[in-house]
Amino acid sequence: MNKPGRSGLSRILDATNYSRKGLRAAWRHEEAFRQEAILAMILFPTAFWLGQTTIEQLLLIIPVALVIIVELFNSAIEAAIDRIGPERHPLSGQAKDIGSAAVMISLALCLLSWGMIIVDRFF
Predict the structure, then answer these.
(1) What CA–CA distance (Å, rounded) separates 114 from 22?
(2) pLDDT 10s digit of each residue in the chain, 123 long?
(3) 46 neighbors 78 (Cβ within 8 angstroms)
(4) Where are the domains of the chain?
(5) Does residue 56 carry a catalytic annotation?
(6) Which of 41, 89, 97, 123 is the most exposed place for a label (fewest CB within 10 A)?
(7) 31-122, what's its fold?
(8) Has this prediction a pTM greater than 0.85?
(9) Do residues 36 and 67 lie in contact, with contact meaning Cβ atoms separated by under 8 Å?
């Protein structure tokens, strides 16, 4: 079942605009997103210098991008939970904790990938 609304190029343009607004909101309201985005701006070019092959470069870039993606999902979960209301509820806390755990695991994967390639290259 298709949702009512635009289709074709106008839908793509709308979706692009929504994505831009989402990135702007994450940048403005989420300190962790800003920190990870700045780190990504440093690590992406570094990956091309550090990685000796295209595969190594991808193994450095993909985990960094994954951290950004997971942080955006976590921020969306937190915003939706906060929208429900300010009162504390065990399920709200659980949802936020699970989102945070996903970010932690993506950061650990990133650290592992970068660490293994750095060790392989320099040691």
Answers:
(1) 28
(2) 566 677 889 999 999 999 999 999 999 999 999 999 999 999 999 999 999 999 999 999 999 999 999 999 999 999 999 998 888 899 999 999 999 999 999 999 999 999 999 999 999
(3) no
(4) 31-122
(5) no
(6) 123
(7) Helix Hairpins (1.10.287)
(8) yes
(9) yes
